[in-house]
Fold these 3 entries.
Entry 1:
Amino acid sequence: MSNPKSRGRVLRRAAAAAVIAGTAISVAPAAQAAPQTLPERLTRAVTADNIHRHLIALQRIADTNGGSRAAHTPGYQKSLDYIAGKLRAAGFQVNTPEFTYNRVVVDSAVATAGSVRVVPTQMTDSPNTPAGGVSGPLVVLPTDATPGCQPEDYAGLNARGAVVLIKRGGCPFTQKHNVAADAGAVAALIYNHVDGPGLGGIDPAQARIPTSGLTTAEGLALTAAAGTQATVDVRTHKELTTSRYLVTQTRTGRADNVVLAGAQLDSLPTNAGINDTGASSGALLELALQLGSSPRVGNAIRFAWWGAEDADKTAAGAYLRSLTFEQQLDIALYLNSNSIASKNAGYFVYDGDNSSGTAGPMPYGSAQIERAFATYLNGRAIPTEDTNFDRQWDHTQFITAGIPTGGLYAGSFRPKSEAQAAKWGGTAGVSFDKCHQQVCDNLGNVDRTALDRNADALASVIGGYALSTEDVNGVPPRWRRAFDRAAAKPAAVTALGGSE
């Protein structure tokens, strides 16, 4: 014969589970469709059409403010106002704290050789040339697989007192700089191996000679002037500048287990920044609007739009420094995205498990975030690849703070390989985004398919973590905690001598 007390406990626990799940104990009709989960609802609600409207707004803001939305410009402030206005109209409380950063001001950027004149970009932490520049014969390094990476590359070349021209690739910029300095060069110009600007930096502790970047076209033009007298005059200074970033959070969900999603908002001074950074900012805004300020979630969702990322991730760093250690513990994880609508798109997920061996040790939980993004995209027949966490981006600050981090990226200046073109479509040998950080990063530089797919992935993953971060940090979802409390209560009463 069964024990009536045991039977009563079972019935009570089953009833508790049904109440917590929002269901009745009776069986639902077989034809009734299962209700959509929050991730499913969000992915349906967040559309490329709505995001594209935000991109039109950012383009128009740039067009009416000198062609830029850089952090120190009116275009950035109006971009911030646009996002803040949309969020406030949707019921969000918006904060726009100030932060300061060192803005790089260009005093001179010119290099000449013979009749060729180009505009170099000073590499980060490079020393300035003296006023008027440095001069010497133009020496062009051979273009093998590792140009300018070994002292042997200078064999037979008289680089002492020369301006050396080196193709990018094969080793870090600092290594190219060091080999050139050891050879006696007075300046180094490193031109890109793909379409796009000459970007990058050198180790400040090793910086000895002025080092600047060039586009591929500029480098090839100078190659034709080999042996002529060259002059490089590249000088910058820094000015302390004040700007703002934006943070908002849902009014519902646990405030001590927050899911934080962020994107860079500002552009370079030379463009509107519609793929880099507008696409991610627009997707994040649309996601917040569709989620609403008071969704039924277990964990609060915090959204952030950063400024001055290209000035050493300044806004994200200022934000984290404003938090105590306990407040940082309230952040369960950080999700970052950048350039998610690249015209020749790839589908990259940040390497949270360091399976490629280049990311380095990552905070616990980052591997699970990588798996969540890859699972969503792979489940829709979209293959993914790992990508390294670029330490120039905002997510660096969160990794350093030990916060689990992950995100998405559609590629920028690097060329798409034959294998990547075979699985993703597009054109092999062409940059994922040939307008990366160039004037042409405008509304014509957006792939709507990539935008839609990546926005859906963000919506699904954010929606999932809004319900539970258990696989990232071990915090169980609200329904499980409630179930455990409900199930344990009768046992506790019995242990205290209560009757059933």
Entry 2:
Amino acid sequence: MPRAYKHAKRRSSGSGVSGIAGFVVGLALGLSVALAVYLYDRRPAARMARQTPPIAAEEAAPPQEPAPASQQAETQYDFYEMLPKFEVVIPEQDGRVQQPSGGGPTAVERPGAYILQAGSFRNHADADRMRALIAMQGVESKIQKVTIDKDTWHRVRIGPITNLKKLEETRSKLRQARVEALVIRVGD
């Protein structure tokens, strides 16, 4: 005999709070706890309790000053800041080589890149005057501002020049204007 089955009604879960409402309540509780911790940590007494007492050996040592900004900046390597520090000054005379009978400075014979430094001045106006004098000889120069031991210097430089013949021609033009330029080899 067939039996009649009636569909049973579903029973409610009991709490009556939907999933979204539970999420909102949990979020509100979490934010309130986070706010309470934040406000508690801002109190001066809480900060003092977290600090560890100093060690006796550290009390005897003098307080160390933070490194100056110039030392911190040196740890950051930058090509344009490092290049002026890798200069090799080429001496006008070498003790092993006899100077030509003309009595002028010796010629540079080693191929590479060279910079001619016509002067280094504390005042930018003086450097600009030297640059103008060099420009009247038909030679292009530029002023490089550097800081050495907290002093600012303005270097008047020509180059880099890689052609040795052009280097000697430029030196000759500068000598005619009574400007003695220092030859600096850049890199190796």
Entry 3:
Amino acid sequence: MKWPNINPLCIEAMEAATKRVNSLTKPLHSLGQLEKMAIRLAGITGHPFPEVSQKAVVVMCGDHGIAKAGVSAYPQEVTGLMIHNFVNGKAAINVLSHLAGANVHVVDVGSYLEEIPEVVIDKKVRFGTRNFAEEPAMTQSEVEQAIQVGIDMVSQLKKQGVQLLAVGEMGIGNTTVATALTAAFTGRPVEELVGRGTGLDDQSYQHKTDIIKQALALHQPDPEKPLQVLAQVGGLEVAAMAGAYIGAASAGMPVLVDGVISTVAAYVAVKLIPRVQDYLFASHQSVEPAHLVLLQALDLQPIIHADLCLGEASGAALAFPLIDAAVAIVREMATFADLGLPNPN
């Protein structure tokens, strides 16, 4: 698979933004992450006064064969029901995106739905993945098709004027996928990574742990072969999100990463093209144990700590106003020079 070109961050814009931030009427570094975000946004956009007001959310949807192994508290049909909920504008991501002034784009890359609502973007690679407790979840060709869906989707959004992206997902069973991928890539014990997902009881939690361990023993994933690992224990929506991150970086677009599933997709994207990391902002740290492991592996500092674990890009949508705040301080705050004072910084 041929990867798109990704430019390095613009050092000149970052230096100019740093100079501006350090001249504002406040103690040095007193706005914390907002300052760091403003400077990196300058590097991404190539402008010391970045403009990211045009926002979009992409929700990649797909079903998972591994759900047949009883790893979720919810039935498989919920994926399709939630796709309809997105369409009706009644899901959490719809509400939160509306507050932030962002449009939501729902992409079906692999659900079991046979009749897809008209406003859903139909990019289905196949009807769900295979059960990776028994066989590889996907072929490499299917993985590459799903990645391309994400790349192409962001390319279209860029042409429509989108300047800031949030990426999320929907797919029953996908915390199992995210945990398996995290264990495969990081080598951490499965027991340290498994979370409760949609609300598993103790017995189901242990069953989920056992299923993941058995699958990893079956496939023996090689962490240095990310496409192969995705094919073995991944998901179609995870591959599509990885493509979206690659597409955003290629388009020079900052992108907000959501929870554990969104973040494992970001990890895959960075494994494929390390420069993607420069374009990622971690919106929050979820309660899923694997999420912190992934954030640390990516050297990303989460913006929000609110005990979230929903997915859908809900945490990413909540972070939109903080990105706006980072831009606003650079654009609108006075400098010491504006007040006729020497800069103590």
